[in-house]
Every structure is written in structure tokens, then in C-alpha cells.
Amino acid sequence: MITEILRIDPDDIDESVIERAAEYIKKGELVAFPTETVYGLGGDAMDPGASKRIYAAKGRPSDNPLIIHIAETDSLSEIGEDIPKAAYDLAEAFWPGPMTLIVKKKAIVPYETTGGLDTVAVRLPSHPVARALIKKSERFIAAPSANTSGRPSPTKASHVIEDMDGRIACIIDGGAVDIGLESTIIDLTEEVPTILRPGAINLAMVREVTGEAAMDPGLKSEDEHIRPKAPGMRYRHYAPRGRLTIIEGDRQAVISRIKDSCDECKNAGQKVAVIASSETAKNYSGYRVFDIGALSHEEEIAKNLYDILRRLDEEDIEEIYSESFNTPNVGTAIMNRLLKAAGHRVISV
Ligand code: TXA
Ligand code: MG
Fold first, then answer.
1. Mutate which of 185, 186, 187, 233 for ligand 1 pocket (most atoms within 8 A of beta carbon)
2. CATH code for the structural domain at 4-234
3. Which whole number is the average pLDDT over 10-25?
4. Which long-range contacts (CB under 8 A, 24 or more apart) does 58-64 make?
5. Which of 72, 162, 227, 342 is the most buried (most CB within 10 A)?
6. What mean pLDDT, rounded, does the chain reach?
7. Would you say residue 348 has pLDDT above 90?
């Protein structure tokens, strides 16, 4: 299949581009498009054939459900059932934006889209291209992140092209995304609203709206019997081919431990790299260092993480040492992804 690549300026939307992409969605074909979190791989959410095509293009296990993207909050009640007040309160506070709500599904939503579950994930993105595409196609759009299963989510069109060229009908290139980490997923089917995947909307922000809220215990547990509730959070994800280790502790101790480890690798003839904050990056001169952004501007770190994970593979890095980035607001989400990428390999110094 030849993938059509359409460029668009999100600040000055060319309707003819949206129209062309919407035609593919209406025909049951797949279109990758930018959202404010990461690029999505979209298809008609009510068409089981389109969902099957999404799973095939990603190489994704079919029990891992898709998120349905809508353009108006009112659409939530067309897809979901028994929707609690907390859902509307959260929608009012954070939609359009980087938040996905899990509610009971209506019968019209095919099991192919929900991975066989009786619940459904719904998100109203804020990105103008995403919203224009949903509206123009007159469909709800099922869209996982537009990466091959297991790879980091795409934050630029070039990432999508790497993974999806020749596998889907169309890619809309709207430039780099804004946030760089996937949406916060909040489960509203239990007594207490529960975060199944941390994102830019953090626990404190959710609690401000709903009062009570919790983190899914499966996210942190070392005990493999307590599994994350979101199927996608159970899989190995984001991991670069090289071995990634996170070094945490006192700043100076971390720097000297990372340099020692790099020296050992170099002596052993291995290709080694460091992931460091802008504040500390200069300490690693002489080594291959990826500056992930400033701790004082934590959004930069979130935005750069996946691109760096991809570049490590491009450069065939064998050993990677990363600082820890437990920043105040997005730190939980950043560390959730980084720990997964590291297979939870952490050394405290
Ligand atoms: O920011 C995002 O959410 C991006 C953009 C494209 O919107 N999408 C995204 O989709 O990250 P995906 O498919 O890569 O991740 C969806 C996650 C998976 O971990 C999946 O298991 C979980 O949502 N999920 C979907 N439906 C669910 C449900 N009914 N119950 C529990 N988890 C669900
Ligand atoms: Mg994904």
C-alpha cells in the first residue's frame, strides 16, 4: 500500500486536507493524525473491520482495547452507559485535553474496538487537526498511538512514517505534538475514580474535581499477581534495544556513578549513552549525552522522552544510563514510562 502523506499547519487548517483524510476514514481505511499527546492511528470506531485493520497495522494483541475519540462532550453519552457525575465533572474540567475516561459501553460499540470488554475508553482531544478530522468524517475515531506495538509512541510525523509507511492509507503531518506522553486514563466504573495510566492530568488535579481518586495499585506493584487494570499497561513497552538503567539519588553521587559506569562500558568496547537533564548534561562531556530538557521546565522532558528512546536505537546504543526525573507535576507520568523502558532496572546511590 502507498501511504499518502499530507502536510498541514495546525494553526491554519487547510480544509481540503481534512476532507481528503476524512474520506479514508469513511471508507474504513486508516489515517494517522496528530493529537496534543501523541500521534494516533485512526479508524471508524463503529466499524469492526477498521478496528481489525488498526490491530494488524500495529501488530497489537487484539485484547488490548482502543480509545474512541470524540469532538463534543455530548458524544460521551452516545457511546457510554450509566455515566457517573464524576465523568461529566472531569469532562467539564479537562476536555478538550489529555484525559481518557473509562465508562460502561453501549451496545452499539463493537467488541472489536473494546478488545472484548464491556467498558469503553473515550477522549475528546484538544488538537485542532484531530478535532477537525473527527467532525469532518462524521464518525467517532478509534485511535491507539500510531507506533508499532512495543515501540515508543510517535511524537513527530517522522516517527509515524518510520513505523507505518506502507501499512496505512494516510498520515497527516501536523508537526511535533505538544505534550509527548499519552493521555491520563481514568476509570469511572469503580467506586473511586482510578488513574490507570498517569499523564499530564495528575492525581492532585483529578482529586480537585472528584474529591476522592486513586492510582491503580497495579501500576507500581512488583508483585506480578497485582496486574495493571489497563491491558496496555501490562505489556513491555517503550524499551530501547540497548540496556537502560536508571540511576537515582543525590545529584553529585548520580553523576559520578553514571560516569564510572560509562567508563566501564567504554573499556569493554560497548556503545554507551547518558540521558541527563539540561541542568546536569555538561557534567558528561566526552560521553554521548542526550539532553532531555530542564528539570525547571518539566514539560520539555515529557516532550523529548520518546524521541530520545527512538534515537538510542538509531545509534545502536548498547548501554544507557539515565538520571531520574521525578518532577512535581508530570514526574509520575515521565517515570512510569521511563521505568517501563528500563524494565524497572534502577540503582539507588
Ligand atoms: O493520548 C492518548 O491516549 C493516545 C492518543 C492517540 O489519543 N492514545 C493512546 O492509545 O495512547 P493506546 O491505544 O496506545 O493506549 C490506550 C490504553 C491502553 O493501555 C489500553 O489498554 C487502555 O488504554 N484502555 C483502552 N480501553 C480500556 C478499557 N475499556 N479499560 C481499561 N483500559 C483501557
Ligand atoms: Mg500506545
1. 185
2. 3.90.870.10
3. 98
4. 58/144, 58/147, 58/148, 58/149, 59/148, 59/149, 59/150, 60/144, 60/149, 61/149, 61/231, 61/235, 62/112, 62/115, 62/116, 63/115, 63/116, 63/231, 64/115, 64/144, 64/231, 64/232, 64/235
5. 342
6. 96
7. yes
Domain 243-348 has CATH 3.90.960.10: no
Give 150-170 pLDDT, tens digit per residue.
Answer: 899 999 999 999 999 999 999
Q: Which of 33, 37, 145 to mutate to test the pocket of ligand 1 (most atoms within 8 A of CB)?
A: 145
Query: Which residue matches cell numbers 495546525?
Result: 10
Provide CB contacts within 8 A for 265, sequence distance 6+: 271, 272, 318, 319
How far is CA 10 from each of CA 14, 30, 94, 128, rounded to the nearest angstrom?
A: 9, 20, 21, 6
Q: What is the pLDDT of residues 132-146, one digit of tens each?
A: 999 999 999 999 999
Using the mean position of ligand 1's atoms as its centre, give its distance from the Cα of residue 347 in Å.
Answer: 30
pTM value surpassing 0.85: yes
Judged by average pLDDT, the poorest of 121-125, 226-230, 252-256, 298-302 is 226-230
User: How many other β-carbons are positioned within 10 Å of the β-carbon of residue 4?
Assistant: 14
The answer to whether the beta carbons of residues 111 and 139 sit under 8 Å apart is no
CATH 3.40.50.11030 domain extents, the chain: 243-348
Task: List where CATH 3.90.870.10 sits in the chain.
Answer: 4-234
